Amino acid sequence: MPTKKTATKKLVAKKTLKKTAAKKPSSKKTSVAKKTLKKTATKKPSSKKTSVSKNLVISAKNVLKVYKGTNIEVTALNKVKIDIYEGEMVAIMGPSGCGKTTLLNCLSGLDSIDSGAIKLQNMELGTLSDDKLSEFRAKNMGFVFQSFNLLPVLTTVENVELPLLVSGTSAKEARKLSEAKLDDVGLLDWATHLPGELSGGQRQRVTLARALVNEPAIVWADEPTGNLDSTNELEIMDLLTDLNKKNNQTFVIVTHSEYVGGRTNRIINMKDGKVV
Ligand code: ADP
């Protein structure tokens, strides 16, 4: 049974998870954070990219998504077909407005489609009820967004353990797993700090730890380095590729960054709602 404290955290989390973006750290704290960042981000990237299996994890066929306004209709996805395999790290790229975020939202079941079919791990999304879909997402997917979406009132480790608590893991186990994941991203020393005391790069690493703590099969990332400078972008990509290799998870990354695209196994280019 969850404790009262755990239940309160869950409630706070549910209410504010979507709305919250972390505060900018003060300059004093930033310089402390930067020093630790240098200390903790030590691993060199390996030049080898992940080996990819032939197990189909994400499959989209003829996907159509039309936004209907009062006077105007926008075809955001126009008969999109995509196959992504287990262990692949894929970038979705293209000009603003071409449908990248819509694709990510539809593939992950955050948004519905008008026609076509999307299968994740052989499960057709359209056949799942809202509850089943939420459960499937909680167990099998992790999300990383540009704006971090960390809860400012919770410590680093409390932020990371949220998905575990929401999906019923005991408080003790959640803390153990979260500390281990913070260690993976080089931030165990920062476990009891608030997000506002961390640099942007560190905050994004906490977001990564949170996305990965329940060992999801698929990690969706929308502009994960969009708010970071090039040093932090490099460090986040080192981490992502290391974790991708270590755990054979599938990563789908929406990005404008040529650098990020170049670090993935494959780039899916989009234009005007189509894969080109
Ligand atoms: P990208 O991520 O490539 O910038 P989006 O997926 O955000 O593109 O948007 C694709 C198209 O769909 C754009 O023309 C955008 O204006 C439109 N669009 C996105 N979301 C909505 C929405 N909620 N309502 C209406 N139109 C939308």
Q: What do you see in this structure?
A:
- About 14% of the residues have low confidence.
- With 276 residues, the protein is of the alpha/beta class.
- It is 39% helix and 22% strand.
- It contains nine helices and ten strands.
- Helix 5 crosses helix 6 and helix 5 packs parallel to helix 7.
- The protein has one domain: Rossmann fold, CATH 3.40.50.
- The strands form two sheets. It has a six-stranded mixed sheet with strand order 6-7-8-3-9-10.
- The site of adenosine-5'-diphosphate (ADP) has 11 residues, from strand 2 and helix 3.
Helix-strand blueprint:
Layout: H1 4-16, H2 27-40, E1 56-68, E2 73-85, E3 89-93, H3 100-107, E4 115-120, E5 123-124, H4 130-140, E6 141-145, H5 156-166, H6 171-184, H7 200-212, E7 218-222, H8 230-247, E8 250-254, H9 258-262, E9 266-271, E10 274-275
Parallel strand pairs: 3-8, 3-9, 6-7, 7-8
Antiparallel strand pairs: 1-2, 1-4, 4-5, 9-10
Adenosine-5'-diphosphate binds next to strand 2 and helix 3.
